[in-house]
Design brief:
alpha+beta; 40% strand; single chain
């Protein structure tokens, strides 16, 4: 059963959108972790610099952690270590029916984010933070 948690991890950062010719454009973004959804992380993009029109992508916290060390993921989300002229980074490739995007994130930002997320819900302990009654109720109501 999940224990109520008010704490979340929310780190604002600048990612670089990588064009096919490897030119980059800075994009304001944030990484978010909520213990109420202990297996997932969310990347929110703020394309106009505000929170009004943000675009969110959720995917596995483990995928992000594993991507620090080796290429991982298939399909819509892929993550891998990447060295750039700006230093050690993490590549985040996102695919949807609307198109594909490749982002570069500072490795230190991702490591700090994951350390804070694991301090809230330790790796391997996620199941202890899932409220099965609430999840089942949402599933049966068609809300998940």
């Amino acid at each position: 059963m999940s224990m109520a948690r008010a704490a979340t991890v929310d780190i604002g950062t600048t990612m670089r959108l990588v064009a096919p010719d490897f030119a980059t454009v800075s994009v304001r973004a944030s990484l978010r972790y909520d213990p109420d959804d202990p297996y997932a992380v969310c990347v929110m993009f703020h394309p106009d610099g505000t929170d009004a029109d943000q675009v969110a992508w959720s995917f596995s916290r483990e995928l992000l952690a594993k991507g620090l060390e080796e290429p991982t993921g298939i399909g819509d989300v892929r993550v891998w270590p990447w060295t750039t002229p700006r230093g050690e980074s993490v590549a985040l490739a996102l695919s949807s029916p609307d198109g594909n995007a490749l982002f570069e994130i500072n490795r230190g930002v991702v490591q700090r984010f994951l350390r804070r997320a694991y301090s809230l819900v330790p790796r391997g302990r996620e199941s202890g933070y899932v409220d099965m009654d609430t999840t089942l109720t949402k599933l049966l109501a068609g809300g998940v």
